[in-house]
Amino acid sequence: MDKDVRPGSAISEKGNLYFAPMEGITGHIYRSAHRKHFGGIDKYYLPFLAAHATHTMKNKEKKDVSPANNAGLCAVPQVLTKSADDFLWALEELIKMGYREVNLNLGCPSPTVTSRGRGAAFLGDLDGLDRFFDTVFEGMGRMGISASRPAVGGSEKVSYGERIHISVKTRIGVDEANEWERIFAIYNRYPISELIVHARTLREYYNGLAHPDVFEEILKRSHIPACYNGNIYTKGDYEAVTERFGGNPMFSGVMIGRGLVRNPALAREIRGRFGLGEEEFAGHREHGRCSSGQLGIARGLPCQTRNYEHGRCFSGKPGINAEELLHFHDEVLAGYRRELSGDTHVISKMKELWHYMGDLFAEADRPLKRLKKTKNVRDYEAAVREVLRCPFKVT
Question: Sign of the C-alpha dihedral, residues 334, 311, 314, 280?
């Protein structure tokens, strides 16, 4: 792997912070721009690579997993399949690229995936799931590939070394939350490195509340480090999870998807990075240059001063202002314009981001409607700047 692609990361006091893969949104252009402008992420999980019997990758998949397009990131590729042979093929290809962790997708609830028995639907075939892992780990042994679990506990450093980590992103069941016991009993039989648990069933999709009580039971019984995923939109949500589970040595961290796309600065806010100290803040406060809400995002019009360099807002808290959000947005837009053909395709991709980011803004209904109706990049960019003149929500 490219020397700038980091294959390992340190576990912080409260655990790791991972960026969830979101198909069609968190591709390599988005990931690179996010790390450059905001950071705070220990691992970026890549949208799934669908492994088929043809044992070939689509050009789009090759581009997304290319080490050159993930330079500077701790990037983890994800594989979607229910075939052990196809998984082993993908694993070997990814190892050749230099990856030392590969994630299996057992969490996707999308009908286009589950209709073929893949993703979260695979959890409904427990015998098949058990055979899958048995074949995968036996196959790895025959291929001379050693699988292992990392050390766990508070602030220990994860070192991949020469071994390969097979992690799993999973839901807790198909129809009922109590299905988790039989599913996780299977996981415990194998050298899986980490479980990323979306604490919902397949049928619950992304609706309603997650089941943190089930995750708590999983931590008590699991032999495998487990990461929490589901309904993390604010720093307060994150802190509620880490305060509840952080004392358990099997708790490995938190994965956030929609919450990070909504507020790209959320990880930085959680980490407490880039905030000004009280003395530095006092030197700027008299000028009234920044008023910050609880989101850690400066409210008001785009700031034209360099005093917001590195996203620091003068409340003494980490955050982002409209100007910085615009710079991030424009870099993603420029990347899509280089890679995609035609305004329609480009702005369609960008509008997917505003489905989430639009929720950051108050009094923005009309500008967002205009943005959604745009049909060329020029009108779209004008609409974006109109949205960014709206105040940020205070929650």
Answer: negative
